[in-house]
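Let us begin with a simple case.
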Amino acid sequence: MENQRTPPPKELTTPDAVPEPKRTSLVGYRPGDLRLGKTDVLWDLGDIPCVSLECFKLAALPPLCEHIDIAKIKDSLQANPKGWIQDAERWAAFKNESTVSCISQEKDFEPFSNIFNAVVREASKATNTPAKLTFASRPAASPISERFNAILPHAYLLLVDKKSIDAEVNKEDHAQNSNPDSWDDIVVSFELEKGNGDAERKDNDKQVVWSLYHIMRNDPCRRATFGVPIENTKLRFWFTCRAVTLVSKTFDFFSEPEHLIYFFCSLAFASDHELGWDPTIRRVCVGDKTQYDITVTTDEGKVLVYETTRVISNFGADALIGRGTRIFEVYLKSHDGKPVKDAEPAVLKDWWRDSDRDCEDRILEQIFADLRNHKGIEQADEARKYFLTVLAAGNVMVDGKIDGTDSLLRMFNLPTDCTWYPLPADELQQPIPTRTGVGRVPSFPWVVISAKRSQVDHRTHCRLVFKEVGYPIYEFRRLDTMFETLQDAHKALQLLHSVGWVHRDVSPGNILRVGKLGKLADLEYAKRLDSHVHEVRTGTLGFMACEVVAQDYLFHELASVIFNDDDQSNEDIEINERLEVNKDPEIPFKFNPLHDMESIWWIQVWILYYHVDRQGGQPSSEQTKCFHKLFPAWLDPPIEALLGYMKIHALPTSFQRVAPSVASMHVELRKAYFVSEKSLPPAYTDALADLHTVFTEHLALAVELSRGVSLFGPSAKCSQYEDTSSEIRDRKLPKV
């Protein structure tokens, strides 16, 4: 969503985009309600670029194999009475003018199967090769999937040479499922409605989009996929990758059969990577479980293969358009395909970055270079301990080229005559503002949702391997461990700020602990303060600075605010009457270091107000009330909470010892905002230096005051306390 202010003069920088959360990244999406899940996916996509059939063929479909002539195939099929009824001008596979058989969905697709087979037989005469795909219709049972999916596609094209494997989880699914096919082998999903009205179209589109979505979120080996909804004799083509979802104009495949012939021919003889598979990820079976061999080609040209042992995080793949981030714990393999002897576990991150954005390893090196220039070599080397160590990094290489959505789409951009295809948004519901109250850490990034754009924002596929297997701060069950880790994260932030950098996404998921040291991770969105590119970024749900949520300076010309303490009235502070938001279009909003500092404070507040101090305990009603005030509805900047005061007495008794230190940081943070925003743009340099000093002192005090204090989620049923010797719980999965 674009910022609605008047564009600033050219010499001024452009403001950050107004943040909108992808609903598939909200905590409320995660319980798995299929109906709500479909709604969330449709909401995130918004209106879809609708392009001509010729444009779709050029951009989304693989190029035709040499010697395939669509006109000749059409003429040959129409000359054969078994393929085409001349008088009726329709496919002979259909017994009447409609696709409706009134028998079963499986029977409905027999004509399509016959047409596909007839087309590829003719095309094979030209290519002298068999088709790589086969047509199947088994609508009574869902294909096998590692991740549950109740959608039953009516039909599909799938690989003859299968990518799926018979891991134990799939064997169990086979035993309970009459469908022998796997989602891992499906190239195109088909849906059929026997009418051609608006209701049928909407239902078909929802089903097709969900199939596209399931393939992209479920299969790490997939870069793109296709779909075809059919209403009677009309159909259209769908395509999706990590940069865009496209739909073609609808056409009648009786009166314009050449388009369907082209579709079948382009896909049936294409290579696997042209069909959307990633040849650098290979699914393997290890100990009756599905794992992946992942190739990393470094920027220096070195080729390394890592075998996964488990998924650390894959919620980034839940958004159909976006980074598609997946993180694995891996071991390096030798050239003979065996694990390297005595190899230590590492972490592999696979994602699709904005094509004009630097990769995270280069951002880190830029930061260290600035530290060397400003602080000296010794301090720069010392700073490395607060960040992850990159072992290997590079763009993914496919077919000898850097893998990106531009190559998938053959450098396609939206044509000037592009229209917008509305998804069935009339049934969309407002998302439930489910945050941490359901027992999940609100660590999902806010991103700019799909909007009507004049161009495709292409992405580049890349991989990073980190040396350290870190554990996120929210995995710990000792309060002093959390504050110790926050201490180190604050030191990392202080180093960034000292050389003119901001992180822009400080959250519990990005603060890790390795051994006894905290590290600040995920610097993909870090940038220099004097940089004027990539202003479109906000932060992480629940931990964003209020000004970042509001996209405005909230403390400028703020009337005198009463800083209440815990001994004063519990009545709410009426902030809105005294808050005059900056409305000057000449002063665009910019992220600054105070916003990073506020995120550190919000993490501490979440730790104290979400958790309880005994196993199986529940928060008091007052603590719960405070929690929801501090973390309000999903789109509201919690400015009243920031300008109010901390109700320390609502916390568990053992937490009350450390809460005054957090409250002191709170007060100094607000003062820093007030001082900085006496004029605009904010002059925060002196206030920031003072604030870092306060945070350093009070985080150290918080560590001492929280010694021996355990903490649990309100519904936690842990069987043991955290091992004080190892500092972490072995049963927890690491995350970066």
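The second case is a distinct protein. As before, the sequence precedes its structure tokens.
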Amino acid sequence: MGNVDFLKSQAAIKFAAFVFIFTAFFYLGKHWSDDSRQLIFFSRQSPSETALSSPSIAIYPNPNKEFNISALINTTEPETEPKPPGSVKDKEKSVSASLAAPPPPPEINSYGIVDMNGTMSDEFEIGEFDPDLVENWGNETEIEAETDKKDVRFTFGVKKFGLCEESMREYIPCLDNVEAIKRLKSTERGERFERHCPGKAKGLNCLVPAPKGYRPRIPWPRSRDEVWFSNVPHTRLVDDKGGQNWISRKGKDKFKFPGGGTQFIHGADQYLDQISKMVPEITFGHHIRVVLDVGCGVASFGAYLLSRNVITMSIAPKDVHENQIQFALERGVPAMVAAFVTRRLLYPSQAFDLIHCSRCRINWTRDDGILLLEVNRMLRAGGYFAWAAQPVYKHEEALEEQWEEMLNLTTRLCWNLVKKEGYIAIWQKPFNNSCYLSREAGITPPLCDPDDDPDNVWYVDLKACISRLPKNGYGANVAPWPARLQIPPDRLQSIRIDSYIARKELFKAESNYWNEIVASYVRALHWKKFKLRNILDMRAGFGGFAAALIDNQLDAWVLNVVPFSGPNTLPVIYDRGLIGVMHDWCEPFDTYPRTYDFLHAAGLFSIERKRCNISMIMLEMDRILRPGGRVYIRDSLDVMDELQDIAKAMGWHPTLRDTSEGPHASYRILICDKRLLRG
């Protein structure tokens, strides 16, 4: 009875079902595995086999036959020569030996930052543009029309901007306006080198082409010493200045920059050391942070100051050596086309800690010293003026007269001749107005009127008067570098904005804002891999974006543009140890085509579209951006559709991204890549 009860129990029934299912699956699995029992062979090439045979995979032909894996694989002994055909063993081995090993990899002919051994290396060549980044664009501009049926209105938009003529490949609209230059009443003082912008109807309406053979820029710091000939294909400077160690040819495809200048033929480093020894208070990278180099040539003076933590604005006119600024920017050195003529330069008062002129071919004493008075306006209180020129050291009668005139003028400006040694003379500007106020009555030049704004520079004529220094010492008491980058400067209080009490908080908030954004760009978008060098911030504010790049250790420099339509924050930018310029984006910018790697515009278009033609601004951006360069536009959503359409019409590749605030924010980021376009 007990056994019968057990058999009827639920436990017994479950046990019997489990045994049945297990047995059934066992036999089914064995049956299927026997039918599909296969061994796959991957053959390798023996030394005697031809290298042209292709690798293949073979399946063992006897699925029911036992085999010994270890007998088939021998990794310790080399393969022997094959036996004559006909051997049974040879036939069996033919299945596994029928395939040749892949041929050896081709020899590496190009070099990158990581070499073929996986080692970091600075010795690498930049090749031609990737074919995927070159587009056959054509020279024709395509127009499309839209009709509003209700109001019967026709609107026209550019579907595609064509390429300009080849003769315009180095076109600077406001400096190459031949018609306006011909109409000038006088060019005696160099008026042809100033801005003469074309009217709106004659503005740029095509894409400035790159020269034939244009190549990606050699990355910094190698670019300091060499650039591609095809990117700036001009040899006049080599012919005129090669003997002065400015520039020379390096083979057929490069220019070389030995680091010399007309007055420092043995190199800029030795020259800079001499200046520091002459005046020990000139501590480069500490109290001397921002420098202006007048008549800079190819900017070797500024290029070598970069290694001393000094940023230099190198300027020169577009004269007979018209490509000197183009060479400077191709090297990756800050530079602008500018000239001392009849208008103020576009930099604020007390901008530069040191202003340098080495054989800059400027007559500083003409017109009652009006040009040196412009130097005085831009020179920081207590700053230095270094002059290396023939009148300093030559004893010819005419040159000695020029030296006496310079001494007389600088004395009346209250400048102190600190040191004269060899071919260099160095003066220091006073820290306050006390010397000016103690001069005898009638001494010229006079002080400027109290209501004169020395920071008002947009199309303002030069003035033959001494710009007053602020009574409160603003501009004179800046912290040494690098502390000055993050300390709110005194002149923050003099900026004409709608805030007074909270200005320092606004300054710090802007710095933190851009620091977080740039850090996220570096982290998520891998900015350090882009090898950015020349950067233009088109609406700079207090310079927070540029400061963030320094904080995040990107080896790049930023030209901070302060739009004429907004508050003039340039004094704050320079007091931080950065460089910048005033500009009206309704007009073209004074630089050569293809001179910037990266353009940054935050909130620019939503403001300037009320005054300017957005297409004209975008075409100007295309002109000054290198092929392969990038654009980041952070602006309100309502301008993004128009900007994307224009970007596509210029051959850019735009991508619209959300900001960190998410998809419901009113702002977006438009990221554009510029390709190399061919006609």
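The chain has 19 helices and 23 strands. Residues 10-35 form the longest helix (26 residues).
Keep these points in mind for the review questions at the end of the chapter.
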